[in-house]
Prior knowledge:
Elongation Factor Tu (Ef-tu), domain 3, single chain, 21 strands, CATH 2.40.50.100
Amino acid sequence: xxxxxxxxxxxxxxxxxxxxxxxxxxxxxxxxxxxxxxxxxxxxxxxxxxxxxxxxxxxxxxxxxxxxxxxxxxxxxxxxxxxxxxxxxxxxxxxxxxxxxxxxxxxxxxxxxxxxxxxxxxxxxxxxxxxxxxxxxxxxxxxxxxxxxxxxxxxxxxxxxxxxxxxxxxxxxxxxxxxxxxxxxxxxxxxxxxxxxxxxxxxxxxxxxxxxxxxxxxxxxxxxxxxxxxxxxxxxxxxxxxxxxxxxxxxxxxxxxxxxxxxxxxxxxxxxxxxxxxxxxxxxxxxxxxxxxxxxxxxxxxxxxxxxxxxxxxxxxxxxxxxxxxxxxxxxxxxxxxxxxxxxxxxxxxxxxxxxxxxxxxxxxxxxxxxxxxxxxxxxxxxxxxxxxx
Length: 390
C-alpha cells in the first residue's frame, strides 16, 4: 500500500508540472504578433548588400556611336545547292521491284536506292554473256592454232585467221559492255536480285539526303521521270531579292549574315556568290544568292531567313551588345543606370552587326546600360511587379 501511495504522488506531481508548462506556452502565444511590412519593389542597386549577395556583379557600358558597316537586310529563303543536287532517273523504262530508301534518309555515293526490271537490260546482259563466251572460245582457238603453227602442222595463214576471230570477239565484248553502260548499268555488277538478268539497281550518284521519292513498287517507271532526288546539304544557298537602289550597293563576294527563327541566337555567315543579270519583270527586283556552309545540317531547304549583306560603306550608329537587350512584356528593353539602380527602358532594335545590335530609338549617347546580368535584372523587375499587384 505504501508503494502504491508513493507512485500516485509522483504521477500527480508530474501532471502539475506539465500543466504549468502549458500555461507558460499559452502566455507566450498570447503576446501581440509582429505585423509584417509589405514588400516594395526597389531598383536593383549593385552597391546594396542585398544585390551583392543575391545577384552577380553587373557590367555596364556607356552608349556611344560606333563606325558600323552599312548592311542591306532582306527576307530570304533557304534552298539546296543545285551544284550538289542529283535527280536519279532510269535510262530505260522498267518496272519497280524494290524501293530501299525514303524521304529524309541519308545515303552514300554508290548506295542502292531501288531495283528495277527492264527487258532492254535483260537483252543487253544476254548479249554480253554470249560475247564473253565467244571471246573465250576465240582466245582458246588462237592458242591452239599458234601451237600448231610452231610445230609446222598448219600453215601460218591459219594463225592470222584465228587472231582475227579473237580480236573480233573481244570487240563484241567491248560493245556489249558499252551497251550496258549506256543503259545506266554497270556490266561488272551482277543482277540486282541475284537471279534475273533483266534487273538492275538505281545508284546514288552522290552522298547526301533523299529529298524526294516518287518510286512505287510495281509501277512502270519511264526513262524521263525522276524516281529519287538526292542533295548534299553540307552547303546550301540562301536567296533574297534586292531592289534597284539596293542592287547598286551590293557586289559579288560581299560578306553576308543569315538568321533564321529556328536558331534566333545563331548567325550563319557566307558570301554573295551570284547576282541575277536581269530584273524580275513582276517584282522589279534582282535575285541575290549567298552560299553558306551547313555541315551540321541545321539549315533546311524552304526555311525563311533574314539576309544582311555588307555594302562596304561605314557610318556611325548607336549600337549596344546583343546581351544588353531583352524582351519585357513583349518589347525590346535595356536596363539604364539611374541613380543607384537600373531602370528598364523600351527601345527600337535595328539590324544585328556581329554580336551588337543597332538601336534606332530609346537611347542616347552617354547613357550607361547593363550589358551583363540582364536576365537577373529582368527577374527582379518582374518579381517587384508581382509584389506590387498583391
